[in-house]
Amino acid sequence: MEVAKLSIVFLIFFNVATLIPSIKADIGEFDEVWRKRAEEAWKNALEAYNPHPEDVTAIVNNRVNDALEAIKNTTGTTVSVDFELDISDNDLGGDNGTDVSNRRYLRGETRRYKGPCVATNPIDRCWRCRKNWAKNRKRLANCALGFGHKTEGGKNGRYYVVTDSSDDDVLNPKPGTLRWGVIQKEPLWIIFAANMNIRLTQELIVQSKKTIDGRGANVHIAYGAGITIQYVRDVIIHNIHIHHIVKGNGGMIRDSVDHYGQRTASDGDGISIFGSTNIWLDHISMSQCNDGLIDAIAGSTAITISNSHFTHHNDVILLGASDSYSKDSIMQVTIAFNHFGKELVQRMPRCRWGFVHVVNNDYTHWKMYAIGGSKHPTIISQGNRYIAPDDRYTKEVTKRDYAPESEWKNWIWRSEGDLFINGAFFVPSGPKKMGKLPFTNLQMIKAKPASFVRRLTRFAGTLACRPGSKC
Asked: N or C: less crowded end of the chain, CB within 10 Å?
């Protein structure tokens, strides 16, 4: 099929002579340690790259269908997670007025759910609604789907408990702090002893094979620097709040137990993924960062962003930082079951070069556009719900940058089974006849699943998990 052929062609951009990325991302001195990390990270990225990304999208689609069928066929109980509405553009009122209650419902402004525990999508069904979740936390590592499905985080390591919310010494962090845990070279599953507000004095540089698991506590990383995942692999960040992130000043920062170095000022991203592989971000609530909420750049790949809630921000998700950095052609990202909510402006995501599967997300707010890109990324949008703003000039979901129509008309941007409300519309591109994708109707999840998006994303963002109770 055409998508697979295009993905395979991406490999021609790479050769052994260009293993080390040319951009250095906040590293003041690109010494031998960083050089070796960059070389290893690039090898990991090439290994993780899937020349047949459509196989991954098919698996996600099939799992979503299975989850919906399982909920439907639950024995002995019928659980109503949402009062799904059969709506059309006309239900929003248009110029003739608006049904306020319908509009608030559509945009996610509903009362907090207080019913029995219900896991409404295939990732959550893998681990949620079990009383013993706290005794089997590492079950989570088996639950990722999409391009990040092989991510294990700290599954094969011991537990490390954060007992100290301070971040006073970035060169010699204290045991018990989050920074001390993430710089260890061994696999670790990091949990929190209590509710915490952590203000990072400098960017938090995470080593490979780490899980940051905020379940059982109310954890906020806020009013300081953000999280940096650079030249590493196998990182899971789960169930934490990240907001009000500011620029870091830079300086001498320890990035592992046996290395520290000079860092330039950080941009103020919530989470920065740089040259890294097998990354899974799940059930995160993010807002109001100085730069982007999430950036994934410099040949990062095998990433899943799922079950998260994004609000109050301009540049939400950036996938690929430069039109001249062709190594991002191997970037493969799944964005699934997220809620893009209040006061968002653009970049949900903004893509360059790679392959992005946008599946079963709820887009209730944007002020400019939802999905954008340049440098011929492949974007497959399936079963999403797009609710356009009232501004008649910003109804379009999509935006192409730095290319005339004669060029972007050949980019593969597809919308399949999406639901468009309040005048929203997606401008597709690419060959009109691409050949049939190797999916069944159930795997493709065409029109019907989009009507379930509120249900699939009902619990996006952080969860109030308590040990001994269903989460």
From this structure: N
